[in-house]
Every structure is written in C-alpha cells, then in structure tokens.
Specification:
Layout lengths: L1 H7 L7 H24 L5 E13 L2 E12 L5 E12 L2 E14 L3 E11 L1 H14 L4 E10 L7 E10 L9
Antiparallel strand pairs: 1-2, 2-5, 3-4, 3-6, 6-7
Helix pairs in contact: 1-2
InterPro entries: LEA_2, WHy-dom
Protein name: Late embryogenesis abundant protein
Length: 173
C-alpha cells in the first residue's frame, strides 16, 4: 500500500516523481508486451538431435542432450537459459538446465546443448517399468522445457512420442 500512497501523494513529495515514472514505464512495458502477444505465432519445434553420455558422478547417470530448435515464425527468438524435464512411462526420469544463450533465427534453427541428470532411484524405478513395457516394445515419453528469455519472453515447448525398445527375444540354436 505504501507504493500507492506515494503515487497519490503531492507531486513535490520525495520519491513521488520516481514512483510515477516507474509506474508509467511498467504500464508501457506491459502494453507493448500485450500487443506483441496479440499477433501470436506458431510454437517452436523441438526435437532431440543427439544424446551423448557424460562422466558418471556417484550414482547418477549424466547425458549431454542436443536439442534442435526450429523457429517457424517471422521474428527471431532470443534465449538466455534452457530447462528440460523428461518423463518416461508417465513418471519423472531426468532433468537438466543450461545457462547457454543464443538466438533461433526467423525461419531458422539452432542446436542447444543441455546436460541431463538421471538420479539413481529414477533409473531403478524405470528399469522395473521397462520390464513391464518390454512386451509392447513401446515406452511413451514427454520432454518438457523452456527457453528463458527474460520476464515475458520465455518460450515453453513439449515434445512427446514413444521410444521403441529393441527386441529382447533369444535366438534358438
């Protein structure tokens, strides 16, 4: 409430001018971001371009995930940080973050590297789940993430599908 008192106070009051200026800038910023959001755009297309194992740390497994991010829009998308969460069989499996920054050009693509960590208990839990899924040979996955771009320009994405397990049958002599 003190902020509003300062705004409504006399113009010669201390800090009132700065508070009014901050309020006006906030309204202009929100209005411009609102106008930009009205035009919308197509969602980014994100797919896994590669997975490379990284040194094991304790009981955790670590991977470097390469994401191919495609921008089908007329304006570039700037980002300053990436966050990922991977679910297998509807259960949390791995997560990762990176402070990598860059730009996905308009009608272009870029590859982003994110280190992904699989906690030991998640790996054990999924090992038992894989035994049940081995019959169908299909494991559903959901990859959720975001490209952070500041206060209002964070871009979220989802990629989902199924992983095919190799046949586990034994050859007869």
């Amino acid at each position: 409430m003190p902020f509003f008192r300062v705004l409504l106070s006399r113009p010669d009051a201390r800090y009132a001018r700065y508070a009014r200026l901050a309020a006006i800038l906030a309204v202009i910023t929100l209005a411009l971001n609102g106008c930009a959001g009205l035009f919308g755009g197509d969602p980014l297309r994100v797919s896994v371009a590669g997975i490379e194992p990284v040194d094991v740390q304790g009981l955790e497994m670590r991977f470097n995930v390469k994401l191919r991010v495609q921008n089908p829009n007329e304006s570039a998308v700037n980002f300053d940080g990436v966050s990922l969460a991977l679910e297998l069989n509807g259960k949390p499996f791995a997560s990762g973050v990176s402070d990598q920054s860059g730009t996905v050009p308009r009608f272009g693509e870029t590859v982003v590297n994110v280190p992904l960590t699989v906690p030991a208990f998640a790996a054990v839990r999924q090992a038992f789940a894989f035994a049940g899924a081995a019959q169908s040979g299909q494991i559903p996955y959901i990859l959720r993430g975001k490209l952070a771009g500041g206060l209002t320009s964070t871009t979220r994405f989802v990629d989902q599908g199924t992983l095919s397990l190799p046949a586990l049958g034994m050859a007869l002599p």
